[in-house]
Amino acid sequence: MSWNTIARVDPVANACPVDGVRVSTWGMGKDGAGKRGYIAIQIGSTLAAKMGFAAEAVSVRLMMGSDNNAGKLAIVLDPTGGFQAKGKPGKGYRIAVGLRSAAQAGLATEFPGFDRAGIEVIKPENGQPRMFSFLLTRQAIAAE
Prior knowledge:
single chain; mainly beta; 2 helices
């Protein structure tokens, strides 16, 4: 009987762009109630600082674009928002979106992860809160 050595390959760094986001699925599987898991949106440290994230938990609102913004997801600084961006100033943040919320918003519940770098904060106008948006991949948008 012969044996072949398995080469050790270091994992690819899982770093979020400092001026952007990384979107991926986590904890996917099934339990007694059906699918479980969530979509993770990591926000880079520079982008988070430009948004004004200064606490370990920041309330945000997520919005799906339509018309001219179709295919985009926006993250809006909103003290009454339904989601929490958790992290540490200078280190980046993470938002977890449950699969039910994702499906209701028109997001796919399974897709390859992706990064978006070079995102700019949209300047607030007329009392609007700070926000940024980014283009989703085709796989991240649920087929109708």
